[in-house]
Amino acid sequence: MNLRILFCMVFYLGIVLKSQAQYAFKTEVSGKGPALLLIPGYSCSGDVWKETVAILSANYECHVLTLAGYAGQPAIDTPVLKTVKGDIIRYVKDKKLNKPILVGHSLGAFMSIWVASEAPGLFGKIVCVDGVPFISALGRPQITVDSVKKNPAFNPELVIRNFQNLPDKGFVDQTAMAMRWQVQDTARARQIAIWQYNSDRKTLATTLLEMSTTDLRAALKKIPQPVLVMGSIYQTKEQSERWLKQQYEQTPDLVIKVADSKHFIMYDQPNWFITELTAFLNK
């Protein structure tokens, strides 16, 4: 066979295989049963769900994602989250998953809402763990995407430059200290800081911008399936419930539960978390 023709065939095959198999996230699959997609939060590895999967994999096939650019995964071109959204939908179709349940923490909850509102017939129940459809308006329902974009602090070039200029020295220590506002355990805080240190700095910047300037509140009405929202304490339990109801106001089938916890509920209140989660899944 002519070498040029052979090369073209191999090159074409490589493109086809890449297009069929490559997604904007790494996936680890374990367990047997109905499919369940677990999406971690900002900068985190899918290992954030390790203890959760250890329990759920007895009854569910758990597909655990780690998004591109996070926790050591190769970065992709922007817009990252929009690409991830499309790839999650494509992944479910490619794998022929039957209405997989979505479980997302923080940014992962935002992504769960986004994919479910775009392809509502493709997914089953949704669990949003301390995540909202429009983070910029949390506690400030009058905020709009336009008002966020007009804020000089959200200038994309400035945000990206600030992230890229963060020094490596002291990064983990300082981030771990800051993470104590989001998780009780110091070892957990340090692990989250290490995941963030191993994340692509531009991805950290652009995904923060993407989430902060994407309002999914109106899209909630497109989601017919049951949605469980697990919230942490924002000053008081009453305030948490009020803010979450504002955010999820247009959700047709909604349950809100608030834990006595910081942001990483599955770490701070593991027994409460798994009890509420399994009860919702078993309904």
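Second entry:
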Amino acid sequence: MLANFLIGLREGLEASLIVSILVAYLVKSKRRHEIRYVWIGVSSALVLVVAVFSAINVAFDQLSFKTQEIVGGTMSILAAGLVTWMIFWMRRTARSLKSELEGQMSAALGPFALATVAFVTVGREGLETAAIIWSTIKGSTTAQPFVGATGGILVAVILGFLIYRGAIRINLSTFFTITGALLIIVAAGVLAYGIFDLQEARVLPGFSDRVFDISSTIPPDSWYGTLLKGTINFQPDPSWLQVIAWVGYLVPVLWLYLRKPKPAAAKPEPASVTAG
């Protein structure tokens, strides 16, 4: 629940900020009457995301157990990669996001183009969110993951609206840095769980080679076992391959994400030519 709340909050806030930028630009450029086309694009993107998410769930239920494990494991690994790409992309483009969107809006001459800009930008965020969340809730028999994701999205929408109205000021750079680091930890767990699925399907070896088994200390059905499972995909009896994948992903990715970028080297000034 907490992991999905975090995912919904971060991804939802990104989408909310994008919509806020688009609407604010139209208001400032005295094109308020065209805002409805932005909402048409947003609504169409949401319909697409729900349709894709529903289709994947229906198709997944029709598969055999082994195929489910293969598909689920592959999707989990892809989701971990998607989270990684999204986090680094947001850190790299956050400063120029506003100018890029406004540039797209200024080039949008008609209603269809306006709706397309909104559809593509929000649809991309929505599909990323759906893919990440699906990898964490597949096979769930409770509503907690859905409640967490929905709650995070709702909070993000409220924050986006308040930021747009100027009611609150938050340091977005700090917010995205902290949530990005937490999501890297979540992604490491998703990756390890994907490895477990592929081992269970006998696609990868080493399913029976356990590093340790502390199920008696941290029972999976206990509240703290459920909390650890829901936040970082903790497993009390991981295989060696899971642990290697978890450490091999988390350590270098977190280090690359948190390290300070090197300042750009100053270009040497051209030597002046003195006339003799």
